[in-house]
Write a structure and sequence with these properties.
By secondary structure, this protein is α+β, with helices and mostly antiparallel strands. 33% of the residues lie in helices and 27% in strands. The chain has one domain: Gcn5-related N-acetyltransferase (GNAT) (Aminopeptidase, 3-Layer(aba) Sandwich), CATH 3.40.630.30.
């Protein structure tokens, strides 16, 4: 298993990955990996823009999207690394948002993906990483803890969802 940047993935594999999420009826996690009804080229353009300071004009922070792929380049998951935090991300989103395709869960891929993500955060100069998960998501909480996450607190977002916050020293 390895991480590929958004611009290194195969378009067909990406479309298969997104279709699985759409067919499941679940919200695509991380949201950045959703194609938002645009062409693949437009998706790539949007992802390149997200890595630049220009994204701040939209109230966002620079971020890089990666996909977890197997030896055949099948996409099994995605993660979004935010290079810094804004006020919202400091409370609810954290530095890393990640998800595993519904058919690939319970195979240990979440832990693999998060460990690889933490290596990436170290390379961009982060020393302490905030990772969050929904309070009810026991699997995600266990994954974060297995990767060195130390529970900090639980906050309620504006919709009343309870969000657990963990910090990892990298």
């Amino acid at each position: 298993m390895r991480l590929l940047r958004f611009d290194e993935i195969d378009e067909l594999e990406y479309l298969i990955y997104i279709k699985e999420w759409e067919d499941s009826g679940e919200k695509i996690v991380p949201m950045a990996s959703a194609r938002a009804e645009v062409s693949f080229d437009d998706f790539l353009k949007r992802m390149r823009e997200r890595e630049t300071d220009e994204i701040r004009e939209k109230g966002l922070v620079p971020a890089t999207l990666y996909f977890l792929v197997d030896e055949k380049n099948k996409i099994c998951g995605a993660l979004d690394i935010r290079h810094e935090l804004n006020e919202y991300l400091e409370k609810f989103g954290g530095h890393i948002g990640y998800g595993i395709a519904p058919s690939e869960r319970k195979k240990g891929y979440g832990k693999i993906q998060l460990k690889l993500a933490l290596e990436k955060t170290k390379k961009i100069g982060l020393k302490k990483v905030l990772i969050t998960c929904d309070d009810y998501n026991i699997g995600s909480a266990k994954t974060i803890e297995a990767c060195g996450g130390i529970y900090n607190d639980t906050l309620a977002d504006v919709e009343g969802n309870r969000i657990k916050r963990y910090f990892v020293e990298v």
